[in-house]
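#structure-requests
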Amino acid sequence: MPLNPNKDLKQYYSIAEVSAMFNLPASLLRYWEKEFPTIKPKKSGNNVRMYTKEDLEEIRLVNDLVKVRNMKLAAARELIQRNRAGAKSSNDLLLRLQSVREQLIAIKQELDGIN
């Protein structure tokens, strides 16, 4: 799911914001931090997690592999380590296709309104 365009100005996102963006529980995000070393949010003095855009991209990739494609954690971790570029480009392609689909649905709704 695409990020909110108004949020692009932010440098850091809270775990609550990230949880809402991906519709995932915060506990799962914390668990993925342990399982995928590429997800490493900064922590403030109060141990509050602050996710960067890079962290969001890693979470998007893991979410695609684990939740969308139903891969086991070990298989997803291995794929990311073995072929990061391939996994990322596949994820990017999926995001573009979802965007095109949303645009086509919007166009269809407009055309249906004309009739």
